[in-house]
Structure formats: C-alpha cells, structure tokens
Design a protein that fits this description.
single chain; binds adenosine-5'-triphosphate; Rossmann fold; 4-stranded antiparallel beta sheet
C-alpha cells in the first residue's frame, strides 16, 4: 500500500540526509511503530507519505501511485484521504470540538445532515460526546488529542499517520489514545505511529520500524522498543555507544531512552504462547507471532494488551500504563546518540513546513538531484540492485510480496489478523454521497451553528459489527478513484505535475501548503468559486472516463 524504494531525502544541499536509502513497505491494515532517536527521520518519513517533500532519490508509491508523478492539483485531495495526528494536537483554537471535527467533513463537501450524524458518532466513539461545545483550551490534552483523532478519522481514511500522538500526554491519557488507535486499526485502517514511548511499544508488541540517522536499521514484526540482542540494529547501536565512550553494558539504552530494558522478553514470551500468524509480512521477526486482534471494546482491548505482558513487565494488572520515566523525561534523556547530537545542525525548529518554506534555509529543489533519466533507470533497476544498496543484512530485511491489488486500497479483505466481524463499525455507517447536496453547495451553505448539537450530553452509540467488509466511505472511494484514475489515465501519470502544460483545460486549484494541517484546512478558506473550479476539474474528468 505504501512503499519506499531506496528513498533519500535531503533538506539541505550538501547536508546530511534526513532519510537515506530507505526501503520499507507498509501494508493495508498494518499497525506500525516508527521509532528512533530524535532527528532520525521519523517525521520526515511520515511527511513524505503525505507528499510533503519528494525524495531526491528513490521512489514512494502509495496504492500504486508514484507520489512524484502525482499532479499538484490532486495533492490536496490526496492529503485529505490520509488522516494525520500530531503531538501538539493542532486543533483550531477558535472552533469547538464539534466544529473541529465537522470542519474536516465540510472540506470534502459532505452534506450537513451527514456531517452531524457522523461527527456525533465519531465523538461518541472517542468519548467526547459530552464535550462537543468546548473549545480546545477548555479541555485536557488527552481530550484534545482524542478530538484531533476524531477529526483525522471522521472521513474514514485508509491511512492514519500519527506523529508522537502520546508525546504530550500522561500515561493514562496516552493509553486512552492507544485504545482508539487500536480500534481504528482493527477497523482496517493502516496506522503508522512515530513514537518515543517505550512502554506503549513494548506493551502492544506490534511491528516496529526503526530509523537511525535517516537509515532504516530494523523492521521487526511483533517488536519491542529495544532491538533484539545480536540483531543488526543492536550491533550497530552498541558499537556506536562504545565508540562514543559509553560502556556496552550500561543500562542506558540502545538509541533512544535512558530506561532499563524491561519488556524485551515479554513480547517474545507472549508470542511463544500464540499460534502461527497469518499474513505476516516480516521475515525478520524475532518474535514471530502477532497478538490476537484487539477487542473492539476499549477495555477488552486494553486487557488483551496487558495479557501478553509477562511478570517482567512492571505494568501488569489493571494499573494504567506507567512508563519507567515520564514522557517528558524520556525525551530529555533520549539522545544517547551523541555523535548525531554533535552533528546536529542548528536548524530552525523543525515544523511541518518543508525546507522550501523555511526562510534562510538553503533550499534543495524538489526535483531529483540526479537527472530524471538516471533516476528512472535507478527505479527500474531498484529490485536488481537492492542487495548492493541496502545496509541492512539480508536476515534483517523485509521482502514484500508483489500484490497487484495494492493499487486499490478499498478492494481489500480484512487486515491480517483482524476479523472485521468482530470489530467496531468505524465505517459501518459511513456516509454515502448524497445527490441532494453537491460538495460546493454544502460548503457554501453549511452553517456550523446549525450543525452543532443542542446539548452536550448524548447517548453513546455502541459500535456495530461489520457484516462483511467495511463499507466504502466517500473518502475511501475518492482515494480509490484518485489512484484508479491516475493509473487509467496514463497521459497524466506519466507526466510529472510540473510538466503539465500551461494551457491545460482544467482550472487552476490553489497550491497546497506544506503542512498537512494547513493543506487540509486552508482549503476551506477557498472561495466558493475556487471550489467550483476544483470540482469541475476533478469530477469533470471522472465523468469523462
Ligand atoms: N524543515 C526542515 N528543514 C531542514 N532540516 C530538517 C527539517 N525538518 C527536519 N529536518 C532535519 O531532518 C532530520 C530528521 O528530522 P525529523 O524531524 O524527521 O526527525 P524525527 O526522528 O522525527 O525527530 P523527533 O523524534 O525529534 O521528532 C533532522 O536532522 C532534522 O534536523
């Protein structure tokens, strides 16, 4: 579904790459923890999935679409098909919880009646039905993050990217967030979560992808926070520690946190108790089996996840997840990678904007650093030359089965290890496109005040089981259509956006901003005329297919 082929990303010409020769694939329904020291490239990788910055080398494909070849005017639509959650929530401060979530639906032109129903349902699922009229500053950090997640999933994205979503939360609030993310994943959404939270990673025992100085050094199914002893990542990091003057046997951690390893054996022990897993894509896993799919009920999900913690783990039982040190402390003590710290350039504070928007920065053009023909050759020969390019030894690499159906993220069966019938119906009542309200009409006429519920207290809607596959939401349908359309219209996809002729028949759509949040929400500031133009461009072509 998401594939990085030998991707390198430089923010500054001549500087160190934020990502270097990264080859990794995330499949439909995956739940992946992306870990690594500060500055190792996690956020960069997530942003690149959002097409915030293109690789100078290599190729990124999402649902079969090469992002470098995506037309610029399709980028906003593409980004809206992906949910994104940030550490700092990024709710709109002048809008209520309800409005923040409704806003995401208005942007895609959902009918007002659908908006109200769907927003209330999602807010109920994340436990915020009683806070719909509160403003972000009137609720807790955990509640803000749940609202942000509700906003991210309200349009039923096929992919949810979460950049340290628990980084600002206490353990209990973090665990609430994780319950929701598990539930979202169990509904079929691919979840990729960058995190420094050792306790959560160890407890959930999901796939772990580890970056180190921009390189992928571990891809482990059912992984734990620390690399298994003797693995490539472990050896690499141990060697670096020794070279930097640390003793190898220091309890100080490999890579990220000054916390003793406590749960490395827990996942393995748990996995030994489990049967063989179907659909595992990782041939390198040191802990071969994934836990049973989480229960749709948050509490049971929690219980499931605690069950596989052995007595070695200090967070057994019903006590909330308590990391060895507070999240803030973890971050403070994190950079054991001293060499990386020394080499860290005094950049402006990293944010979601690309370097092109960073004043004063030496800008690396988005175009490939190599001549296009060369890059094409490199792409074509990627598979053949992979062995000679990758740093990771064969036994720690992942091989990915070619899946022709990947081009369509919707035509999927339940994710591996997840029985859809047992999962809450995140998409079960996804709204359908209504002929009564066209996208621009609903945006033009939408009145949030009218949408806002009368009362704060609403009866939670219990999740409904999905009878078969999850139903297709507007967003998922659009994502599928977007890629199918790109693929079926070779003249478009064969040509990079920048090459599009000036006299193209489609009206111009404002360029997306660099950040995901801005890209998503600045669109709503378009005039009605711009939206009409956008619609003519998008839906006109669909009609002509
Ligand atoms: N906009 C930018 N301009 C220039 N350099 C950047 C930019 N964003 C990130 N970098 C650099 O790219 C490298 C990777 O940064 P990135 O934010 O991806 O790391 P990270 O693993 O997400 O870190 P953290 O855990 O602290 O969030 C770092 O060296 C960082 O300084």
């Amino acid at each position: 579904m998401i594939r990085f082929d030998q991707v390198s990303r430089y923010y500054q010409s001549g500087g160190k790459p934020a990502l270097e020769d990264v080859t990794v694939e995330f499949n439909r329904g995956d739940f992946v923890f992306l870990i690594g020291a500060s500055g190792s490239g996690k956020s960069t990788l997530l942003r690149m999935i959002l097409r915030e910055g293109l690789p100078q080398r290599g190729k990124i494909t999402v649902a079969g679409q090469n992002l470098a070849r995506m037309l610029e005017r399709r980028v906003p639509e593409y980004r809206r098909s992906i949910g994104m959650v940030f550490q700092d929530f990024r709710l709109l401060p002048d809008k209520t919880v309800y409005e923040n979530v409704a806003f995401a639906m208005r942007v895609i032109g959902a009918p007002r009646t659908q908006i109200r129903k769907r927003v209330m349902k999602i807010l109920s699922r994340v436990g915020l039905e009683h806070l719909t009229k509160r403003y972000p500053h009137e609720i807790s950090g955990g509640e803000q993050q749940r609202a942000a997640i509700a906003r991210a999933i309200v349009n039923s994205p096929a992919i949810l990217l979460a950049d340290e979503p628990t980084g600002n939360l206490d353990p209990r609030a973090a665990e609430e967030v994780m319950k929701i993310l598990r539930w979202i994943n169990a509904s079929g959404t691919t979840v990729i979560m960058a995190t420094h939270d050792r306790a959560i990673v160890d407890r959930m025992a999901r796939r772990v992808v580890q970056l180190h100085r921009g390189k992928l050094v571990r891809d482990q199914q059912d992984g734990s926070y620390d690399a298994p002893e003797g693995s490539y990542a472990w050896e690499l990091l141990t060697k670096e520690q020794e070279e930097s003057g640390l003793r190898a046997h220091d309890p100080a951690p490999l890579l990220t946190q000054a916390v003793p390893m406590v749960a490395v054996g827990a996942a393995a022990e748990h996995n030994q108790q489990q049967g063989p897993e179907q659909g595992s894509t990782d041939q390198n896993s040191t802990a071969p089996n994934r836990p049973e799919p989480d229960s749709p009920e948050p509490d049971s999900a929690d219980q499931n996840s605690t069950e596989h913690n052995s007595t070695e783990h200090p967070h057994d039982g019903e006590a909330p997840l308590e990391p060895e040190v507070a999240p803030g402390d973890q971050r403070d003590t994190e950079p054991m990678d001293s060499a990386a710290s020394l080499e860290h350039e005094p950049d402006p504070a990293p944010d979601e904007t690309s370097v092109a928007d960073s004043p004063g920065a030496e800008v690396v053009p988005e175009q490939p650093m190599e001549p296009p023909a060369e890059q094409e050759n490199a792409e074509d020969s990627a598979a053949a030359s992979a062995d000679s390019h990758r740093v990771i030894p064969r036994e720690f690499r992942v091989t990915w089965p070619e899946d022709a159906s990947d081009a369509d993220p919707i035509e999927s069966s339940s994710p591996a290890g997840v029985d859809a019938a047992d999962m809450p119906a995140l998409d079960g009542e996804a709204f359908e496109e209504s002929p009564e309200a066209t996208p621009q009409e609903s945006v033009e006429t939408a009145d949030l005040a009218a949408d806002e519920p009368e009362t704060d207290a609403l009866t939670p809607v219990p999740p409904k089981p999905i009878p078969g596959q999850p139903s297709r939401s507007i967003t998922q349908s659009r994502l599928a259509w977007l890629f199918q359309s790109e693929e079926s219209q070779g003249t478009e996809t064969d040509k990079p956006a920048a090459d599009e002729p000036a006299g193209a028949a489609r009206p111009e759509v404002p360029k997306p901003r660099a950040s995901a949040s801005e890209a998503s929400y600045s669109d709503t500031r378009r005039t009605a005329e711009q939206l009409r133009a956008s619609k003519r461009g998008i839906f006109g072509r669909r009609g002509s297919r």
